[in-house]
Fold this sequence. Notes:
Elements: H1 3-10, H2 14-18, H3 24-59, H4 64-122, H5 127-152, H6 163-183, H7 204-235
Amino acid sequence: MSKISKFFKGGGSAASKGRRGPSPQEALARLRETEEMLSKKQEYLETRIERELAAARHHGTKNKRAALQALKRKKRYEKQLSQIDGTLSTIEFQREALENSHTNTEVLKNMGYAAQAMKKVHENMDLNKIDDLMQDITEQQDVAQEISDAISNRAGFGDEFDEDELMAELEELEQEELNKGMRNVRLPSVPSTSLPSHPGKLPACHFTFLVIKQCSSTRKRAEDEDEMKKLAAWAS
């Protein structure tokens, strides 16, 4: 068993046993501090690597011993840099896992609060009372619909009058109007002078006058008959 395993198995010092574990926020803050420290260490090592590489180039074959020493130091710095890269990856993974765990814990805690609130709201509710309430609401909606239907129906005012009687009265009024119109029409007068049986015995001028007068009377009569037909058609 390694020393690290023994240390964690033994629980560390006595003071650490009685102390409560860190909160997620404290652990996350420590991890971020460690990441920041290792990032600065990376920058330092990268600078030293560039410096040792420049020294090895400067000495070259003229001073092999100094050049080789510079390359050895560069190798050590590169090894440390690689270790830091691995450590940062591990810390980043641990930090993300801790953040997710903390988020899940908060989510579950809030869901627990919500469940308790729902339980508190529902503890005074009776399902039988809810069913009765919904039934009452349905009945009242039906009553309201019946009232709306009754109000929207056409009122029966004036339905006591017989439609046939009203139509007969209307026809009488139309007949009265037709009779008034016929009384106002002036019928053509019968000509006072009859046409001679032998028109050849009359003077030509007298015969022509009688024919014109008779034609005018006939045309007037035809116009009056047309007017009567129009009035009869309008009355029907």
